[in-house]
């Protein structure tokens, strides 16, 4: 597989990431490192949400149902043609990164007009973990590899 990293930066949201919450200055600011990579042959897009450690607000796990659709809209991505992963450091005694795939099963809109996905999680397999390692290594200066 060959990938092209098309986006790599810190990604911000407020609250759980809904449209209404983005306008509320009283809600906690949250962020992660977002990497978007396009696979060359299948055109599948990989979205990596990388935890940046303590004091980064609400973890992606607690708001992924809102921020993945928001990311897709912002970057013109087809939600059913992507693979999304949450990534965070293990404990200090094991500095390897932990990879979890976000399995998207459905997308609907809620009463406020926000797109909300229904998802589950599963550990990334060995092959995917190797690819994720390579993608992260490509943009390593912005990624926290282990807890401080």
What's a quick, concise take on this entry?
The protein has three helices and six strands; from the N terminus they run βαββαβββα. It is α+β, with helices and mostly antiparallel strands and 148 residues long.
Distance between the termini: 33 Å
Number of strands: 6
Uncertain parts:
none
The radius of gyration is: 15 Å
The main β sheet shows up as: 6 strands, mixed
Strand/helix succession: EHEEHEEEH
What is the total number of structural domains?
Answer: 1
Structural class comes to: alpha+beta
Helix content: 10-25%
Shape: globular
Q: List the strand order in the largest sheet.
A: 1-2-3-4-5-6
Task: Give the strand content.
Answer: 35-45%
What is the number of helical segments per DSSP (H or I, 4+ residues)?
3
Mean pLDDT: 86
Task: Describe what this molecule looks like in 3D.
The protein contains 3 helices and 6 strands. It has 148 residues and is an alpha+beta fold. The protein has a 6-stranded mixed sheet with strand order 1-2-3-4-5-6. It has one domain (3-142). The chain starts with a strand and ends in a 10-residue tail after the last helix. The model has no long low-confidence stretch (mean pLDDT 86).
């Amino acid at each position: 597989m060959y990938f092209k990293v098309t986006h790599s930066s810190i990604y911000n949201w407020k609250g759980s990431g809904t449209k209404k919450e983005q306008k509320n200055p009283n809600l906690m600011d949250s962020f992660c490192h977002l990497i978007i990579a396009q696979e060359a042959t299948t055109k599948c897009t990989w979205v990596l949400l990388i935890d940046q450690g303590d004091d980064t607000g609400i973890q992606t796990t607690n708001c992924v149902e809102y921020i993945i659709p928001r990311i897709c809209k912002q970057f013109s991505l087809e939600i059913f043609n992507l693979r999304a992963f949450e990534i965070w450091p293990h404990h200090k005694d094991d500095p390897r990164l932990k990879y979890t795939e976000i399995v998207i099963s459905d997308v609907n809109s809620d009463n406020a007009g926000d797109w909300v996905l229904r998802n589950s999680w599963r550990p990334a397999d060995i092959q995917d973990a190797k690819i994720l390692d390579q993608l992260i290594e490509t943009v390593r200066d912005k990624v926290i590899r282990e807890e401080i």
